Amino acid sequence: MSIPLLSTLIFFPIVGGLSLLAVPRQQTSTIRLMALIISLIELVLTIPLIVLFDKNTHAMQFRELHPWISALNINYSLGIDGISILFLVLTALIIVLSILVSWESISEKVQEFFIAMLLLEGVMMGVFCALDFFLFYVFWETMLIPMFLIIGIWGGPNRIYATVKFFLYTLVGSLLMLVGIILLYQNGGQTFDVLKLAGQPYSLKLQLLLFWAFFAAFAVKVPMWPVHTWLPDAHTEAPTAGSVILAGVLIKMGAYGFLRFSLPILPMASQKMLMPMLILSVIAIVYGAVICLAQTDLKRLIAYSSVSHMGFVTLGLFALNQRGLEGSILQMINHGLVTGALFLAVGMIYERTHSREISVYGGLASTMPVFAGFFMLFTLAAVGLPGTNGFIGEFLILLGGFECRPWLAVVASSGLILGAWYMLWLYQRVFFNEVKESMQGLAQLNLREIIILTPMVILILWIGLFPNGLLSFMHVSVGHLLEQVHGSGLVQSAVISGLTMHP
Amino acid sequence: MIVPAAIDWSVIVPILPELLLVGVAILLIGLDLFLPNEHQLLPWLTIVGSLAALIMVLGARPTAGFGGMFLLDGYAVVFKTICLATVIVIALMSEQFRNLIRMRQGEYYSLLMLSLVGMLLMASAGDLMVLYLGLELMALPVYALVGLHKRGQWTSEAAVKYFLTGGFASALLLFGMSLLYGLTGTTEISRIAEVISSGQLAGSSAMLAALGLCLVGCCFKVAVAPFHFWTPDVYEGAPTIITAFMSVAPKAAGFALFGRIFFFGLPHLHDHWGPILACLALLTMAVGNITALCQHNLKRMLAYSSVAHAGYAVLGLLAGTAEGIAATMTYLVIYLFMNLGAFAILMLLTSADGSGDTLDDCRGLATRHPLAAAMMLVFLFSLTGIPPTGGFIGKFYLLKSAFMAGYTLTVVGAVLFSAISAYFYLRVVRYMYMNEPVQHSSLTVSHGMHAALVLCVLGVLGTGIFPGSLLNWTVTLLTGFL
């Protein structure tokens, strides 16, 4: 490759964000427009990735390798495979929508807000591209700074509590991972190269130790039960764009960490820890869903539903078979789209009513019919109706789960029923019933808002109807990952068969 | 008739930077008599003098002078660089502070220079005598500097406290040194190491007493708990600029002393002092970080934070390896930028009317002065150890070296205390960015302060994003010159 495409993806938004400093603070509309253009260019930059990506190899593509801190054998090493490529596109898309949705709702410190958003975008791209564990850690931790500011400065009334909690939870987890990284460095041939670290003969004891060190960071980020408690607070208090980024990208990084580091580097420990991880996942699914039933706050309900949905993701991951893994990666994308869309939609009505209490709403279907239509589709996708993307993801995960531990999959599937219950009940309370007085005369969706929601609808239906488009990207990489996991020969029970949804 | 032997002038070459600084100090006192107090020559002379010394140090070739009493090795070069750079930055900042404390400039700058000479001697000491000489030469001017600000009673109390505890620590150290001399029959540090490695002294109770006394003395000097109790009061009572100076340069010199005695002199007793130091490091991080949590006064908070950072820096020392020492030195270089930077912003806050060093005073700083707030943000995240700042690289390197030396539990403890520290550093960020401003007075920033702040920000971000050259520099200097 002559053009360092991945570096461009990482540094273009960072440089672009800093260039906003050149615009006088008062010219907010220029700043907004520039931020939007930068994020749109970034989205366009992902197109060559998709076009040039070779789906038939599991090797890392678009590699970039430069020495960075040679004294410690740390390299600036980038590359993507079928697992990471989708997250890059998702990130670029989510940021465009987040900038659009903040157009009017962010009126204070506008310049700082968009700079923070663009810096965050660059750093998140870095997380998904990094193939050096140290570099990954740098991006992973740097991400905390803009997110901390986004929630803490532009968030709701209880924002300071939420943002500090978010920061400290993730920091403690990450720091334990740092110790794990040093331990790995010491035992893995004094390198941070992820590809070299995988496939080394670590003892089981060491693998288990490392597994829990990494678990501290990844599980907090996912967030898995019982370290999920930062998420509802952060989601609830964050500005709409913050919630969308949290749901759309940030919490995917935990699961991505499991995929990229825990599974291939620590295969024996991953298999040994299969049961605890599956059980934690199922608890998250059921617990998250039950808690949703008791929520009176719109955003909090969606936040807890994320806990439940991400439980499905980890369930699929630790099923450790092709369908589970593919379903789980697909579900991460789906969750990013659907929950992102739900947060966008909630943000839109919040701007009109300034309330997130479900009891305040009622009869929106007749006052805002277009909005009700959009929300209906998102609700159905969240419930997993066939034809929407949610169905494909959950179906694959449950198939994988059945292959691995049938009875756990049965318990997990109760999450689907509970999910249908709380989402449809929510829809009924907000959109049907009698029209509340305060709901009359609400402004219809404007063009900008329709433009924001439309790509979500298209993607939800497209993935729901033609899932192979996405699955084909990850197929070979997931197969290779499973070889790495099962190649260690501790558990061979999970079947790696050609039984997939596509030829 | 006796012909006097030709004097060999080449022996003074290694100590030329020190001689230069002594000359500058004398010149400063002399000029002060004739120049008006506001004259800009004195700070410039200080800066140019230190800069010249810095260039001489960096350009020097490894040598030993005065029969091994004075070593100009890589170890010395790094510590000298830290101390000289600190004084340069402090001198740049002083212009801002001068109006507030209304003191005679001449005394101030010459005392800085003299204590700098002491530090440089300490860094180069190949002999216990030179080490002690340097220590006292450094400490006496600093005692005076703490008391320079004659306004409040706190200052006098701080000066007396620092003088008494400092003298006490020096006495203990001297006692330890005399025991070492008695046991080994030499004051030359490399000879001490040789004697200990060959003899049966290792386990003797006298040797352990010597070890203990030296350890206590050194811990006092770098403010390692439980010998840190003087720091909060002294740091709070001293003028802020002196606090900034003390928390970096004499501390770095203290680490130079620490390393000279323990890493160069007593490496064969590492089994004895390593674990003790590990416990002290943990205790220091615990005390520093947890106590900083409940401070409302920023200066006091930074004082406790500097105690905690001494705990981190000790991690490299306790490893007892070349990599560990290199990590400590790297960390101190980075610490110089981030700590001076944080103190500089604090000085900006206080410079308006002399008070105002509490958390409430930085309420809404992001609105009042976005650039200052953004800089403080960088320094605080660096002190917390979040990438892409130098603080993270430094901490990582320290943790790695301690880990490689087998101090796993200490490392885990350091990591957890580091997470605790995030809380109080973030609290400042919170007040700056997330609270409404209480006052709208603008900040006045002098040119020198501007330059110092830019230097600090570049230092913190530069070492964070491109740490390679700094790491290579310390490692090659240390290993190449040993």
TrEMBL record, chain A:
Domain of life according to the entry: Bacteria
Oxidoreductase recorded as keyword: yes
UniProt keywords, alphabetically: Membrane, Oxidoreductase, Transmembrane, Transmembrane helix
Subcellular location: Endomembrane system; Membrane
Cellular compartments per GO CC: endomembrane system; membrane
Predominant place of localization: membrane
Spans traversing the lipid bilayer: 6-23, 35-53, 73-101, 113-140, 160-185, 206-224, 244-263, 275-296, 302-320, 332-350, 370-399, 406-427, 447-466
GO biological process, one term: ATP synthesis coupled electron transport
EC nos: 1.6.5.11
Protein name as it appears in the record: NADH-quinone oxidoreductase subunit M
Natural source organism: Desulfobulbus oligotrophicus
Automatic annotation (TrEMBL), chain B:
Record-level GO BP terms: ATP synthesis coupled electron transport
Keyword Translocase in record: yes
Keyword Membrane carried by entry: yes
Reactions listed under catalytic activity: a quinone + NADH + 5 H(+)(in) = a quinol + NAD(+) + 4 H(+)(out)
This enzyme's EC code(s): 7.1.1.-
Subcellular localization: Cell membrane; Endomembrane system; Membrane
Matching Pfam families: Proton_antipo_M
Membrane topology value: Multi-pass membrane protein
The protein's enzyme class: translocase
Principal location class: membrane
Cellular component terms per the entry's GO annotation: endomembrane system; plasma membrane
Xref: InterPro entries: NADH-Q_OxRdtase_suN/2, ND/Mrp_TM
Keywords: Cell membrane, Membrane, NAD, Quinone, Translocase, Transmembrane, Transmembrane helix, Transport, Ubiquinone
Occurrences of domain NADH:quinone oxidoreductase/Mrp antiporter transmembrane (ranges): 125-419
GO molecular function: NADH dehydrogenase (quinone) (non-electrogenic) activity; NADH dehydrogenase (ubiquinone) activity; quinone binding
Superkingdom, natural source: Bacteria
Function: NDH-1 shuttles electrons from NADH, via FMN and iron-sulfur (Fe-S) centers, to quinones in the respiratory chain. The immediate electron acceptor for the enzyme in this species is believed to be ubiquinone. Couples the redox reaction to proton translocation (for every two electrons transferred, four hydrogen ions are translocated across the cytoplasmic membrane), and thus conserves the redox energy in a proton gradient.
Quaternary structure (record): NDH-1 is composed of 14 different subunits. Subunits NuoA, H, J, K, L, M, N constitute the membrane sector of the complex.
Record-given protein name: NADH-quinone oxidoreductase subunit N
Species: Desulfobulbus oligotrophicus
Gene responsible for this protein: nuoN
